[in-house]
Amino acid sequence: MGIRPLRADEVEALVDDLWLPFAAEMGDIDGYDALAEDVDARAEALDYRTEQVETEGVQTFVAVADGESAAESGAGPDSDERSLRGYVTVAASESPPVFARGPVAKVKDLYVAPAARGEGVGTELLERAHEWGRDRGCERAALSVHADNDAARSCYESMGYETRYLKLDRPL
Fold it and tell me: Which of 2, 103, 137, 155 is deepest in the core (most CB within 10 A)?
């Protein structure tokens, strides 16, 4: 298993094999996170992820089985032998100058395919995101996790993440 930056030719595999299942899982945890039915979520995700590959200050890393990309292996959404096992997207964010803190590496997404869970893939992806942030002068890493996602919370806490804020919302 290797961790490396996502390549432009892998965006479709990322969206089909990882992001869409991730979005479905999050929607199952809480309907608040369900995808809109009147939007082509796949097309929107392809555009967004393609743009991110070129965006300065944002990086997506993928966990790749056997050192090959999904494109090289011929794996696709219907393949049992998917090469991409997980991904993390991280962005460097400057803190407002009124605060006595430096830049933060914000972990935007982290997902590990069900077949690869329990193998340390999520930990490896987070460690790579942390390294990327340190290389850009970030002092801390931050992320958000759904309150009911016990497995993810356990992983993050085992890596030293602590609750700093609680986000509350309500219907209007």
Answer: 155
Instruction: Give the max Cα distance, the chain.
Output: 51
Tell me the C-alpha to C-alpha distance, in Å, between residue 115 and each of 70, 158, 160.
16, 21, 25
Q: What is the pTM of this model?
A: 0.87
Q: What is d(CA 146, CA 23) in angstroms, rounded to the nearest whole number?
A: 12
- For every residue of 71-111, DSSP letters joined together read HHHT--TT-SS-SEEEEEEEEEEPPPTTSS---EEEEEEEE
The structure tokens listed for 46 are 């392809």
Instruction: Give the count of beta carbons closer than 10 Å to the beta carbon of residue 83.
Output: 22
CA distances from 146 to 20, 28, 42, 74, 133 (A): 17, 12, 22, 34, 23
Question: What angle do the packed helices 150-158 and 121-135 form, to 10 degrees?
Answer: 50
